[in-house]
């Protein structure tokens, strides 16, 4: 939900720069997405604290493990959403998201490199931790003005994509 709502908010914000539409609708969508993200983040963190075995089981699952990476991805998208309003908060959310993204992608990739990933569990979800999250990191770097770091993340996402093909 967060991905779609915030994506529509970003699209509407951009549309307001080239067409005579109100930016307020885009900002409202970003706020709604942020609220949904906050609720889901609290639920995920609560589950991780109360039932850590459940989160570890999900992280070790050959298919479901890829979707855990949506937490840092959406965190970085929310960081992009806050850039026009609260840059310091954007920087904090970006730092949290990028550290989680890099850590989780490295951990999951290590498991793939060992060759123990079952063929029947090979789904498009495998692209999320390394490809999609690096592209989102590149977007966040661009929004925050970290151009060189953004190019590194863009390259990492591209090479991750090629390595999975």
Automatic annotation (TrEMBL):
Pfam hit, one: SLAC1
Residues that span the membrane, as ranges: 29-49, 61-83, 89-107, 135-162
Signal peptide: none
Chief localisation class: membrane
Localization annotation: Membrane
Keywords: Membrane, Transmembrane, Transmembrane helix
GO CC annotation: plasma membrane
Transmembrane in keyword set: yes
Membrane topology: Multi-pass membrane protein
Highest taxon listed in the record's lineage: Bacteria
Molecular functions per Gene Ontology: monoatomic cation efflux transmembrane transporter activity
PANTHER family: DEP DOMAIN-CONTAINING PROTEIN, TELLURITE RESISTANCE PROTEIN TEHA
Protein name: Dicarboxylate transporter/tellurite-resistance protein TehA
Species whose genome carries this gene: Klebsiella michiganensis
Lineage: Bacteria, Pseudomonadati, Pseudomonadota, Gammaproteobacteria, Enterobacterales
């Amino acid at each position: 939900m967060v991905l779609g709502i915030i994506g529509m908010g970003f699209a509407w914000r951009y549309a307001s720069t080239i067409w005579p539409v109100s930016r307020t609708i885009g900002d409202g969508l970003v706020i709604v997405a942020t609220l949904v993200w906050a609720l889901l983040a609290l639920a995920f963190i609560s589950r991780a604290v109360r039932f850590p075995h459940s989160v570890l089981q999900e992280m070790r699952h050959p298919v479901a493990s890829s979707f855990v990476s949506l937490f840092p991805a959406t965190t970085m998208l929310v960081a992009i959403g806050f850039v026009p309003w609260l840059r310091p908060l954007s920087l904090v959310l970006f730092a949290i998201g990028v550290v989680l993204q890099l850590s989780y992608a490295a951990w999951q990739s290590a498991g793939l490199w060992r060759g123990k990933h079952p063929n029947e569990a090979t789904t498009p979800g495998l692209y999320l931790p390394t490809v999609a999250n690096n592209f989102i990191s590149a977007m966040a770097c661009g929004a925050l003005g970290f151009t060189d770091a953004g190019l590194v993340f863009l390259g990492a996402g591209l090479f991750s994509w090629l390595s999975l093909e």
